[in-house]
Structure formats: C-alpha cells, structure tokens
Amino acid sequence: MRNPTLVLLCTALAACQGGDGDPCPDLCLDKAADPERCQVACQSRDVAPADEVVDAPGDTGVGFGDAQNAVNGVRGCGQTCGSLDVFSLGFDAGVDNYLVLRWSGRRVLNGPGVDFVVFENGFFWGAGPERFMDHLVVYVSRDGVTWVPFPHDYTAEDETAFSWDPTRWPGFAGVSPVLLHAETNPVDPFDADQAGGDGFDLDDLPDDGGEAAAIQREGFVYLKLVSAHSEVNPDTGEPYPKEPISNGPDIDGVYGRWLAAD
Length: 262
Prior knowledge:
Strand order of the largest sheet: 2-4-12-9-10
Strand content: 15-25%
C-alpha cells in the first residue's frame, strides 16, 4: 500500500530525480522506510562502482591475479560464459581467499530496495537452470575492523556435496551470470534482468541491536568478499562445497547506490 507521507516527501525533493530518470517516490515504495531515511536516500542517490582496493592478499598484479580488475569496470560475458576481466580468489584463508573494496571517500547507505550488486562470474552450462557457480560470502563494515556477514545458508539435501541449483544458495554472491558490460552493454547495474549480478539489501542484515543495526542506520564503508569454500558451514562443520573444477571465485566488480560522503 502506498505511504502518502513518503510519496509527498520524496516528490518535494529536487534531488529525487536520479540520473537514470526513475522517480524516487517509486523506489521509496519498495520498503517501509521512515521519512528521514527516504530523504537521506533520495538526496544521496548515485550509482557507482567500488573503485578502491583496500586489501587483496592474493594480488599479483598480473592477469587474473590483478586486483585492479575488480575496480576497472564490469565486463560480463553473458549467460553462457565467464568474463576474462576479473580478479580471481583462491581458497587459502588469509592468503588468497578474500578481497576488500570501498568507494573512495564515500559510504553506501541503506536506501530503498537493493543497495549494492556483486558481479562475479556464474554462467549457465546447459539447457536447465543449473549453472557453474563460485560462491562468495559477503561482509560489510563501517571501520574495516568489525565485520557483519550477510545471512546465507546452503540448503541442499546433502550439504557436504555441491549443488548446481542456484536456489540452494540463498544469501551468497557468485550465483548469477553477468550481463552488464561497460562498453558493449552499459545498462543500469540495478536492473537485474538486464545486468545480472547478485543484489544485496542492508535491510536483510540481522536486527541485532548492535553492529548490524548500526550499519542499517549509518551505511557501510568497506565490503569484503570471501571464497565460500574457505569458510565453515555451521550445519556440517566443514567448508562449504565448491564446484568440482573450480579454482576460486572471479570478481568482476561491485556497484553501489545511495552513496554519501564518508
């Protein structure tokens, strides 16, 4: 149901008309935000890629080992192939299994709808819904010290075996193909049908009354992507299973919106 307070407030803000022409009132209807949040989000509306590598222990500066590939623009290959413009992670914890990014001098706020999109490198390998996937666990932080993971759960019947069914991997990144391409398909990164990728909404963080709640109120500065196979599944006490021929997730880039000066 439409909230007249939100609609009137957003309509009154000159900044509510975003660069892509979509009116803010329609976005504000996507979540039961309070008027103050609606105003902050509308005034901060800006779609931009993470552009700074903060920490990449596996960075070699060469080929798929060049972490700058994760901040130099998304260049997806489409539904049935993987991009070559990526930074590849491994599975050795603390050595090559994670990447930390940020938006230079800015933070990502909790606005209406999806707040950021992770573009990894999944793709369909057959006629059915199954696909090649390299999964990531997604963390956010205000200070780069205290991290909050997005809720995620592997729901296969046998959680010790890998499933090619994307519906078995809720809350993970690295699930969807990447259609967005900076040169050949420069679509709205937040149009999932046109751009692909995996969207995340800060409202999905746990309402813990602590750090997660603070991030929901204030936004985050740092984003950490971790190879799921290097993390322990609490349901089994073993690492999340990986695609048998995988050698690690391939990160193409991350887009955020509702950006404000940090």
